[in-house]
Amino acid sequence: MSQATRFLVIEDDRDSREITALILRVEGYHVQVAENRDKALAMLLDMDVDVIVMDYMMPGTSAFSFCQQIREQSPKTRIILTTASNIAEARADFLNIVTFVRKPFTPEALISAIGR
Q1: Is the four-CA dihedral 88, 89, 91, 94 of positive or negative sign?
Q2: Whether residue 91 has pLDDT greater than 70
Q3: Strand bridging mode 99-102 / 51-55
Q4: How far is the C-alpha of 41 from the C-alpha of 103, rounded, in Å?
Q5: Crossing angle of helices 14-26/107-115, nearest 10°?
Q6: Is residue 9's pLDDT more than 90?
Q7: How far apart (Å, rounded) are the C-alpha atoms in residues 88 and 85?
Q8: pLDDT-based confidence at 73, cuts 50/70/90?
Q9: What pLDDT shows up at residue 76?
Q10: pLDDT greater than 80 at residue 108
Q11: Residue 38 near residue 59 (C-beta atoms within 8 A)
Q12: pTM score, two decimals?
């Protein structure tokens, strides 16, 4: 993946959001952050991203509704779902989500997932 790849990190936990963004920035990626899916949707009206790294368990819009909206608006945007839940993996085929990262994850695990 090109170092010019644009990421959007969506995570409601501030520490997790900042750490995930830092991991990506250290690797040379351009990173924006949002603390919830509603804010992310608003941001996506004004910007294009190549990859979304998103927490599965967050209040508000469900991960699956959000992913459906992204697939309709921008079918080429890649989604990496971070989760500690087995439920998300069971429904992944429905949404065409190809990559999961188990929480808690190491920087190496996240970077490896980007390369898949």
Answers
A1: positive
A2: no
A3: unpaired
A4: 24
A5: 60
A6: yes
A7: 6
A8: confident
A9: 87
A10: yes
A11: no
A12: 0.89
* Of residues 87 and 19, more confidently modeled: 19
Residue with tokens 């990262």: 101
33 neighbors 59 (Cβ within 8 angstroms): no
Please answer whether residues 42 and 6 qualify as being in contact, where contact means their C-beta atoms are separated by less than 8 angstroms.
Answer: no
- 91-100 contacts at long range (C-beta below 8 A, 24 or more positions apart): 91/64, 94/64, 95/64, 95/67, 95/68, 95/71, 96/71, 97/67
Token pair of 27 as six digits: 């690797």
58-79: average pLDDT: 86
Q: How far apart are the first and last CA of the chain?
A: 9
**DSSP H helical ranges for 27-97:** 37-44, 63-73, 86-90, 92-95
Measured distance CA(63)–CA(61) in Å, rounded: 7
